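Input/output pair, single chain:
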Amino acid sequence: MNLKHIIGQNNKKMIMHLLIFVFSILIVGCSSNSNTIPENITSANLDTSQNVDVDKTLEIEDPQVNKLYETANSIGNSSGNISNSGIATTQDDWIFYVSSVGEQKGIYKEKYDGSEKSRITPEDIKDPYSLNVVGDWLYFIENKSTSSLGGSSWISSTDQKMYKIKTDGSELTKLSNDDIREIVVTDKEIFFNNISDNNRIYKMDLNGFNSTSISDGKTMELVLYNNDIYYVDFSDQDNMNICKITTDGNDWKMIISEPNTNWIKNVIIYDDTVYYIYDDNDYNSSLKTSDLDGNNKKTIIHDVSAFNIIDDKVYAYTYEEGVFKYNIDGSGKEKLTIDSTYSINLISDLIFYESEVLIKMKNDGSSRVRLVQ
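Output:
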């Protein structure tokens, strides 16, 4: 059952309070998590002897690519998809997607036309997200966080570890014992928000070694654009900022300041423009835009809880209404489905979103199918 059905269709503030609680679980973290490695899963940080096969015919430094792929990704997913939980990505004519709802949870792959569908991950992978694919490796976070009501307060435990697995389902490998919220994988390294170290931005190599902090302050959201990393700094919860640094951690700059903020999320950069959802202290949310230098801020769509962009079109879920398609400036509203969702992933002319189950449909709202029951 989705969030909308649980707490009612007409109580927007209750939805926002619950969302803020869920996000707080992901952000706060817990340093006392177990570092036990599951059976038949290797740990890159503990096994320094593992070998990596590299296709040396490609002029990429250590891409770990498989010759099955004619063109290996140089980055594992789009910033728009990663900002929407990273539930789908693509490489060549394969689509990879995750399901964390329904009974058949895990990571799947299929051809663009829906053929040759198969599950990649073992049954104990129940809640994967932040999916990236580069060469013959898939990278993801497995969320095993828990929360429960103890007396009059909530008790939460964060357990969000990074793994990689080959696209044929072999060699599931744990890359870090830290709790991690979001990852961006390139053909050379991995960038991530490290919950275990005060939510700083880190980078490491593709094998899980040489993990290094490259930022200060509490961070969320990760957008890699023109060799810069754009992120949200929430060190001051009431005054959040969108900042940027270079991939080596230099040249920090604050781009956008939003005082009296309840939340900033879903940061996407498209055609040299920053798009983001801004929630004020009255839980009113809107999709805003800005230049890369922070100028010319404006609101283009109201009451938005999730959005993504492709081919000069904005796809957004608005409260209690459904998923709509807009022109890039927010005009031309076209309804696609009444389903509720909090993650919209886009691949070519396909939309993937999680409602009660994982759904795939065309970007005109047609050919709607359930991918995983």
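Residues 286 and 302 are 4 Å apart (CA to CA). Residues 12-28 form the longest helix (17 residues).
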